[in-house]
Amino acid sequence: MGRSFILSALAALALAAPIAAQEAPPGVLVIAHRGASGERPEHTLAAYERAIDQGADYVEPDLVATRDRVLVARHENEISGTTDVADHPEFADRRTTKAIDGQQVTGWFVEDFTLAELRTLRAKERLPALRPGNARFDGLYQIPTFAEIAALVKAKEAETGRRIGLYPELKHPQFLLQHAGIDTVDLLLRELTAAGIEADDPVFIQSFEIAPLRRLDARSDYKLVQLVGVEGGPADEPAMRYSAMVTMDGAARIAEYADAVSADIRLLLEEDGTPSGLVTAAHAAGLKVHAWTLRKENAFLPPPLRRDESEGARGCPEKLWALLARAGVDGVIADDPALAVAARAGATCERPE
């Protein structure tokens, strides 16, 4: 959270508990960020299944592609922070540096591995200092394919009798197309078809870039989501700023090709904790609004919502949920779906000391 938000929202945050109980719309979606990534290493089948068992409406896999053109779930195409690839001497010569979306990144990249090679790696916790409990699961899980995630969702639907949505994000689609010759738009459409997932199923496809969403809009009827951040702009539109995309005119342009906008929480709340104009602009354009990312650890919460001095200790994300619900968002992307589901039902936490 920005400093000005932290300092100015104290009064609103103090009132958040009764707001949660009285005003949270029952239809606010809980979207499990990389699965239950607050409790298991992110983007593993274990994380997705735990999220579903906790009541998440959607699970959110970030998708990149292997050299042999299989979509797999990783936060980024660079995997040294989320796998044990650095411990595999047979892949030492794959370490390289690439310019991705204007940034120099050094490490190992999914597009330089076949799926069979990736299968020899194991996932690990990306934030072990903040989430040491997750690190206990390091080395247990493989990198899942998108097809496996879709199959898990169908199996859990059969088990639970409820619909479970998919909310995939295409990571760096223009980079992969231009520098690796991998068209992740085409791959995703083919894999959705192969999985029997149709446009009227609960599916949102998201990207920070514009061209892939426009291509998806031209080729399919799946619901599409434009991601926006506080700073910068789409990598495929260097002259465009996200700040210009969250105005009335910007939202109307997004509505030409997308069905929703997913925004950093700091874009959705004013400095005093009241709703920003983004929600109003998006809803006026006919767009749904989703918020990212709700997390429980103190490190990700403003000081009024922290409960002790430890960065990794649990704070009070329920109060932040309350402000977002009052702002009128249609969904919240959360690392801990169990907490989000409880907050939607009116759960609160004690005021921090």
UniProtKB/TrEMBL annotation:
Reaction(s) the record says it catalyses: a sn-glycero-3-phosphodiester + H2O = an alcohol + sn-glycerol 3-phosphate + H(+)
GO cellular component terms, A-Z: periplasmic space
Keywords: Glycerol metabolism, Hydrolase, Signal
Listed PROSITE patterns: GP_PDE
Xref: InterPro entries: GP_PDE_dom, PLC-like_Pdiesterase_TIM-brl
EC annotation from Swiss-Prot or TrEMBL: 3.1.4.46
Superkingdom as given in the UniProt entry: Bacteria
GO biological process, one term: lipid metabolic process
GO molecular function terms listed in the Swiss-Prot or TrEMBL record: glycerophosphodiester phosphodiesterase activity
Classification via PANTHER family: GLYCEROPHOSPHODIESTER PHOSPHODIESTERASE GDPD5-RELATED, GLYCEROPHOSPHORYL DIESTER PHOSPHODIESTERASE
Stated family: Belongs to the glycerophosphoryl diester phosphodiesterase family.
Protein's name in the database: glycerophosphodiester phosphodiesterase
Lineage: Bacteria, Pseudomonadati, Pseudomonadota, Alphaproteobacteria, Sphingomonadales
